[in-house]
Amino acid sequence: MKYSTYTDTSLYKGQWYEYTLQAFDDDKLVSGYSPAVLLKSFDNGVRPEIKK
User: Fold this and answer.
1) How far, in Å, are 15, 35, 40 from residue 22 at the CA level?
2) Domain map of the chain by residue range?
3) Can you list the residues of the chain whose pLDDT is less than 50?
């Protein structure tokens, strides 16, 4: 079984986003779309340490 990941790097803090998924197999068969997932982006205020 193959796994894929996706990172959306163009989000804005506090905005809502909706995503659906569609699967493709090695024989190029395509699934229907998954039910939508509705997510709200957030910013917890934690920033990485600044190293000198």
Assistant:
1) 23, 10, 21
2) 14-43
3) none
Side chain identity at residue 21, one-letter code: L
- Which element (helix H / strand E) includes 40? strand 37-40
- What pairs with residue 39 in β-bridges? 17
The answer to whether 1 and 27 have CB atoms below 8 angstroms apart is no
Predicted structure pTM score: 0.64
CA–CA separation, 19 and 34 (whole Å) = 9
Inter-residue contact 14 to 42 (CB < 8 Å): yes
Neighbouring C-alpha atoms within 13 Å toward the C-beta of 38 = 2
